[in-house]
TrEMBL record:
Gene3D superfamilies: NAD(P)-binding Rossmann-like Domain. Signal peptide: none annotated. Keywords: NADP, Oxidoreductase. GO terms for molecular function: oxidoreductase activity, acting on the CH-OH group of donors, NAD or NADP as acceptor. Belongs to the short-chain dehydrogenases/reductases (SDR) family. It holds the Pfam family adh_short_C2. This is NAD(P)-binding protein. It comes from Hyaloscypha bicolor E. PROSITE patterns: ADH_SHORT. CDD domains: SDR_c.
Length: 264
């Protein structure tokens, strides 16, 4: 994969203020891409201070709110009329409820992880559809990739975790969105894939591992099952996302890429 591919291309990364999203924004910036980093945190991380020409930080954004996302896109398109890729990295994994999670926990988890992914992506797909409204599935196949969408799932997209019913349901749903969009939008040159991180050393994972009541114990046991014997690094997840955004993955769509240290 050539990093020159990304030069002056424009990307949206949700959850771009920490963890995997932050690692990805930094890699894209190094590759001379223009990046819109979206996060619920009001203030940009200090790493962005020297990147003001390439990284545009949009803070205090609730991706689960359609009205907020609509206003967000107005701000983004004023800077970047064409978007070349989307990465849906915003997500939460609340716990502490035990085996019967509350309605509030379920609704909040689905709102951020699923509806947030839905809002950001469908707003973009509406833009793409306006570019070529007459291009249908029976027309000429696309000559190349118009844009690449990468959704961030989880090992919980593929298997169940004890005491994480809401999170597991949400990440299964994100996988469903990925596969459906990849089918529905291939004729427009849109590729859609999902990265399924295993345990990764992020603020979210550290919070999970420090929770020793039920959920934390399950995750600690899961860590012992990783053949490589450690948590992944955010940068390792970002490398896989970069591959899926880039030209080296031009014939890959509708796929799940586990990045999990060999977790079964």
């Amino acid at each position: 994969m050539s990093t020159s591919f990304f030069a002056q291309k424009h990307y949206i990364v949700t959850g771009g203020g920490s963890g995997i999203g932050l690692a990805l924004v930094l890699k894209l910036a190094v590759a001379s891409a223009i990046v819109h980093a979206i996060d619920l945190k009001a203030s940009a991380p200090p790493e962005f201070e020297a990147l003001f020409e390439t990284v545009h930080y949009h803070g205090s954004i609730d991706v689960s709110s359609r009205s907020s996302v609509t206003e967000l896109y107005k701000a983004i398109t004023a800077i970047s009329p064409r978007i070349d890729g989307i990465v849906n990295s915003a997500g939460i994994c609340p716990g502490g409820d035990g085996y019967i999670q509350s309605d509030e926990t379920f609704q909040r988890t689905m709102a951020v992880n699923v509806i947030g992914t839905w809002n950001i992506t469908t707003a973009f797909l509406e833009m793409v559809n306006k570019e070529s409204p007459d291009v249908g599935r029976s027309g000429t196949p696309p000559s190349g990739t118009r844009a690449s969408i990468v959704n961030i799932g989880s090992s919980a997209s593929l298997c169940a975790w004890p005491t994480l019913t809401a999170y597991t349901a949400s990440k299964h749903a994100v996988l469903g969105l990925t596969r459906s969009w990849s089918l529905d939008w291939a004729h427009k040159g849109i590729r859609v894939n999902l990265v399924a991180p295993g345990g990764t050393d992020t603020p979210l994972a550290r919070a999970q591992l420090s929770d020793l009541e039920g959920r934390g114990e399950a995750l600690t046991a899961g860590l012992a099952m990783i053949p490589l014997g450690r948590l992944g690094r955010p940068e390792e997840q970002a490398d896989t996302i970069m591959f899926l955004l880039g030209d080296g993955s031009s014939y890959i769509t509708g796929q799940v890429i586990p990045v999990n240290g060999g977790f079964p």
